[in-house]
Write a structure and sequence with these properties.
The protein is an alpha/beta fold. It has 18 helices and 30 strands. The protein has a nine-stranded mixed beta sheet with strand order 14-13-15-16-23-22-21-18-19. Helix 5 (125-142) runs parallel beside helix 8, helix 10 (288-304) runs parallel beside helix 11 and helix 14 packs across helix 17.
Length: 689
């Protein structure tokens, strides 16, 4: 990824997506955006609007918008919207996608793609070539304009619905992908226990029931999505090779359905200079997991690109609805910034006027008048301007605790928990309500309550400086990952495992020994009996100190090795949790999933004893608190953020000076009073890290 520094913190908004806002509002709107202190605007030129007839490009509206932005000294992010394809892409190039049972997925219009033409198959080489030519023409037109800042190659790259695409071009691409990965059909058959005749007889699956074929196909889909990003980038760089190109995903891999809404952050990010993400958080938080969501998602994005952008921050929902509380909107913005994002763009300046987005998404009203939420956004713009270059150059430090999140494991566990009849796969809808996602969200929230904003890591990452690693609901552990985990513990790390763990191989098959890959030597225990618990059922583990720990999903009875200690038992006395010393480190293994139990009742659940034990073994101080602290560091300053996720509380700023307090905060006798959803930013000289 490209490393860039700015002497300001980028803080702007999406402004124009045809047909709104209308031309007569542009001049006043862009002047007001600049007056309020925003640094940039984003324009979204839709392919369908600018090349209605093949080879004839019309730029009048975009020319006017660029000139107004320059007049107001607003930088422009130019984001091509290729999914809105012209009619001729479908009628002349055969661009229609094909879904399950060979049903055409005819182009449609909806509120986010109002002008229609949503969306063609970019696996079709003629469509891909035409799309690349559009982005080349777009860059050629504006590369010399003083307002142009950088390009956004793709808005929310993804493959959806589950059935897309089965046209001849996509099927050929899938077969080529299999051929490139396995070489021969015999090798593919041997790898998965299949009996295909040739690559030309392999088709995308019509069922998830065997797991393996859907597992393969959706991995191909993720690579096809990244290639779509690449084709747009090629067009921009053909005309303007030195300028920065980014893309941003709709939901990061951490919170996206990997089967029904496929996208791979790492593959996408490899095609661009800068990566970003829309920010799909619950704007009416119901519990601690919702309140932690901005920190949770940011931790993942920081792993994908340390200079990531929060590229669509929503202050409102689509359509008519209850307005979010400004206190939470403000806190969520600061959480995203505190977590290390390098720039933030709101979606969008004004509320929308049509379809299922009616009166939705905007900071301001349709007529441009301010709202309670836009007033908070404007206030933050002023603070960021005052903090200036030093703050823009600041970064979070690496955490001493990390959570392992594996994309292949996530896909496999999503497929496992699909529910449909054998040949009714089209009934499956996107969902993230399954064990792997639940465990990751809960683990991050638990650690946040204990005083740590955990990083996310993937297999093979450098874990130097990390004291605690959480591996929760990770069924697929390959040989390289097993060696990585073993090395971490041998070198002195503490590993916290929540079952299920290391019980499937790369074929998606259940392994005879669990944990697999010889990891019994690391964990000091093995799985003997596994009982699948009905949805909603909780079993309890009694710890050696008498504390109780709820578990959901599974009741796994463990057989400890002679040199391991049983630290928790099921209610029938069978081993449920084991501690094992290995090398210079420690492993704590739980046969019941504490994170999934916490996920179900996060505001009523106690901190799991497994987590406090693991923190203790790792030498990390655990302090159960709903006043959450994060920091960004420059060479000369620490910017400390205090986020109140609970009731009214107090804090001592100590050697730090307040540079921002949200409405309702008080100061008396050297103490700060912080109301619910209150935020305080302090600045001081950094201590040793």
């Amino acid at each position: 990824m490209k490393t860039e520094t700015f002497d300001f913190f980028p803080y702007g908004c999406q402004y124009h997506r045809a047909p709104t806002p209308p031309r007569e509002e542009w001049e006043d709107d862009l002047a007001e955006i600049a007056r309020a202190g925003y640094t940039h605007v984003q324009f979204r030129p839709q392919w369908r609007c600018h090349e209605r007839r093949r080879g004839e490009f019309v730029w009048d509206d975009l020319d006017r918008l660029f000139d107004l932005a320059a007049r107001n000294r607003l930088r422009v992010i130019l984001k091509a919207q290729l999914e809105n394809a012209p009619d001729w892409v479908f009628t002349e190039l055969g661009g229609t996608r094909i879904g399950f049972h060979n049903q055409p997925l005819d182009p449609i219009a909806h509120a986010a793609f109002y002008v229609g033409g949503w969306w063609p198959c970019f696996d079709n080489p003629r469509v891909a070539e035409a799309a690349t030519e559009f982005t080349r023409q777009l860059a050629e037109r504006y590369k010399g304009h003083p307002a142009l800042w950088f390009y956004n190659a793709w808005n929310e790259p993804r493959s959806r619905p589950l059935g897309q695409c089965r046209c001849e071009h996509s099927v050929a691409s899938y077969r080529d992908w299999l051929r490139g990965r396995y070489g021969t059909i015999e090798a593919l058959n041997a790898a998965f226990g299949k009996a295909w005749t040739a690559f030309d007889t392999v088709f995308p699956p019509h069922s998830h029931s065997d797991y393996a074929e859907l597992f393969l196909w959706r991995q191909w889909a993720a690579e096809a999505v990244a290639e779509q990003v690449a084709l747009s980038v090629r067009g921009f760089r053909a005309a303007d090779p030195e300028r920065t190109v980014m893309c941003h995903v709709g939901c990061s891999s951490l919170v996206q359905d990997p089967a029904c809404d496929t996208s791979n952050d790492f593959l996408n990010a490899a095609e661009v200079d800068r990566y970003g993400c829309s920010f799909p958080i619950e704007l009416h938080p119901a519990n601690l997991i919702d309140r932690n969501a901005p920190l949770y998602q940011s931790s993942w994005l920081r792993r994908v690109d340390p200079g990531y952008w929060c590229q669509e921050f929503y202050t409102n929902y689509a359509n008519w609805h209850k307005e979010p509380e400004p206190d939470f909107i403000e806190q969520a913005i600061w959480m995203a910034i505190a977590s290390g994002c390098r720039g933030l763009t709101f979606w969008q300046y004004k509320s929308e006027r049509f379809g299922e987005e009616s009166n939705g998404w905007g900071m301001r009203e349709i007529d441009g008048s301010p709202t309670r939420r836009s007033e908070r956004c404007d206030r933050i713009a002023g603070v960021l301007k005052e903090l200036g270059a030093d703050f823009a150059a600041s970064r979070p430090a690496r955490s001493k605790a990390a959570i392992w999140f594996d994309l292949r494991n996530d896909l496999l566990m999503r497929i496992e928990e699909m529910r449909s009849e054998l040949n009714h796969i089209e009934e499956i809808r996107a969902s993230t309500d399954y064990s792997c996602k639940q465990a990751a969200a809960a683990d991050h929230t638990i650690l946040r309550r204990l005083g740590v904003t955990a990083d996310f890591v993937v297999s093979g990452d450098d874990l130097s400086g990390c004291r605690l690693l959480v591996a929760d609901a990770v069924e697929l552990v390959d040989e390289a990952a097993a060696a990585w985990l073993t090395g971490f513990v041998r070198d002195g790390g503490t590993l916290l495992i929540g079952y299920p763990f290391a019980c499937r191989d790369e074929r998606t098959w259940v392994t005879p020994q669990r944990p697999a890959r010889g990891l019994e030597a690391l964990t000091g225990c093995r799985e003997t009996l596994r009982i699948a618990l009905p949805a909603g059922e909780i079993r309890n583990i009694r710890w050696e100190n008498g504390a109780m720990q709820a578990a959901a999903g599974w009741q796994v009875i463990l057989a400890p090795a002679e040199d391991a200690d049983v630290v928790g038992r099921w209610e029938d006395g069978s081993p449920a949790a084991v501690r094992h010393a290995f090398g210079n480190g420690q492993v704590v293994t739980c046969g019941g999933n504490f994170a999934m139990a916490f996920f179900r009742q996060p505001d009523r659940s106690a901190i799991p004893p497994a987590c406090t034990l693991a923190m203790e073994l790792a030498g990390l101080e655990a302090c159960d608190s709903l006043l959450w602290r994060c920091s960004r560091y420059s060479e000369s300053c620490e910017y400390r953020f205090l986020f109140n996720a609970g009731g009214f509380t107090e804090a001592e700023p100590g050697r730090f000076e307040p540079v921002y307090t949200s409405p309702g905060c008080t100061s008396a006798a050297g103490r700060l009073g912080i109301p619910p959803f209150g935020t305080v930013i302090l600045r001081g000289t950094p201590a040793s890290r």
